[in-house]
Amino acid sequence: MNREEMLARIEDTSEGWDFIVIGGGATGVGTAIEASSRGYRTLLLEQSDFAKGTSSRSTKLAHGGVRYLQQGNISLVLEALKERGLMFQNAPHLVHDLPFVVPAYDWWEGPFYGIGLKLYDLLAGKMGFGPSKLLSKEKTIKHIPTVETYELRGGVIYYDGQFDDARMVINMAETAAEQGASLLNYMQVTKLIKKNGMVHGVVAHDTESGKKYELNAGAVINATGVFADSVRRMDDPKAKQMISPSQGVHIVLNRSFLPGDSAIMVPKTDDGRVLFTIPWHDCVIVGTTDTPVRDISLEPRALDEEIEFLLSNAARYLIKDPQRSDVLSIYAGLRPLVGSGDEANTASISRDHVLHISRSGLITITGGKWTTYRKMAQDTIDHASVVAQLDAVPSVTHELHIHGYHKNAEMFGDLEIYGSDAPAVRDLLLESTENSKRLHPDMPTRVGEVIWAVRHEMARTVEDFLARRTRSLLLNARASIKMALKVAEIMAKELNRDDAWVKQHVEQYTKLAEGYILN
């Protein structure tokens, strides 16, 4: 993907677009794939970077949702388990199976959770990742060497999916581009264009150049997540609130807290939440919270009570109690839950997706969960093609491989996340001694990866690279700050920027990353 080439496409507005998709997260990019793979002329516009918001701040699970099974939402679990299987099938370089252990400390917990997880297996059917089974105390400890052993009776093991969320969105964007879609980051939609009372386009502002564009389309799709209501109010200032945002917070610890290859799942904490402790990229993620919030921001911040909840609950299930000083990074994301707007407990709001079409034809897709992005996109384009008065074309995304598809990407070692791009990335690293140098002794990321991200993945800022093209910000915020200057210098050379740009972007990134550090 190349931003200059994408800009050149929208300069030629003679034909217009079948669809303009607003929002560059999982739902928006998934919708762009769905539309372009059916042959529709598709343009996606994102106000910041791809996956800047919720889509890069998840628990990194491609899962059916054991919690939703507890809530009795069988249809959502069935749908999510099917989509989990398709994610694994179409992006095996980023999605893999992961064993989860539910430790049992009361006599009834093993049999009780064992029955529920057998139902989970049954619902997964042929797309299951492996059968669940009861574990003895000894086998539970073998899977989770650092689990709290006091009064431990045993456990239950089951299998679910894990992935790299931001990398998935980047590869999805590349997939959409390969299918013919045009995608632009740092292109903010500021107004909807109407003709005869119907939405037929957008006014967009390029935040890099300051240039304004008027872009026409058969239909406009609002896939902006927690920002969906603000776009709906561009259409109708009196539109009622749909989104009841919920904040999810995660802390990242070093691998010593969970040295095995299995994750821990606590199905019910004291306040009814599910808690995960998960190995990821040689670190450990503990999450998540479910806190109703009013303020919507691209950079949400964890509340003190959320931090204490995660630390205290992790301590109950681990031999070594994590302290604030052990936290390598902390990140928060906002879920775009669809509710009445006055819920006191967002954990009880359905995670089903909602498709809304206004009287003027604005199509809003929101709610849902990461794992079901493809089904959400399919439903959206099925309806959007009617709104745009286009010929119906069946979906082909069930079997559409995501860019980077490679069944044995682990053979590429540290470059596994690049999948089929890994040999080309490796060649770039080997072009010079400088390209192969690490950006920080504690991190695997190398100089050549910055060059690759700028040339092929539309990375435009230091944050784009350290937060989403690689996951340095989430894995070790302090180390990422020390990497920022070198990253900025490399990007400036590639993007033809000056020293003032380097200084500005290092300062901006440092300020942002400090918010991911616990004092």
Structure description:
The chain is built from 16 helices and 18 strands. It is of the alpha+beta class and 519 residues long. It folds into three domains: 3-54 and 167-243 and 347-399, FAD/NAD(P)-binding domain (3-Layer(bba) Sandwich); 246-335, 2-Layer Sandwich (D-Amino Acid Oxidase, Chain A, domain 2), CATH 3.30.9.10; 412-514, Helicase, Ruva Protein, domain 3 (Orthogonal Bundle). A hairpin with a 5-residue loop joins β9 (198-206) and β10 (212-222). The longest helix has 19 residues, at 477-495. The protein is globular.
- Shape by Cα distribution: globular
CATH topology grouping of the largest domain? FAD/NAD(P)-binding domain
- Report the average pLDDT across residues: 93
Beta fraction: 15-25%
Number of domains: 3
Helix content: 25-40%
What profile does the largest beta sheet have? Answer: 10 strands, mixed
Number of strands: 18
Structural class: alpha+beta
Total helix count? 16
Rg, please? 23 Å
CATH class assignment of the largest domain: Alpha Beta
Keywords:
single chain, about 525 residues, alpha+beta, FAD/NAD(P)-binding domain, D-Amino Acid Oxidase, Chain A, domain 2, Helicase, Ruva Protein, domain 3, 3 domains, 10-stranded mixed beta sheet, 8-stranded mixed beta sheet, 16 helices, 18 strands, about 20% strand, globular
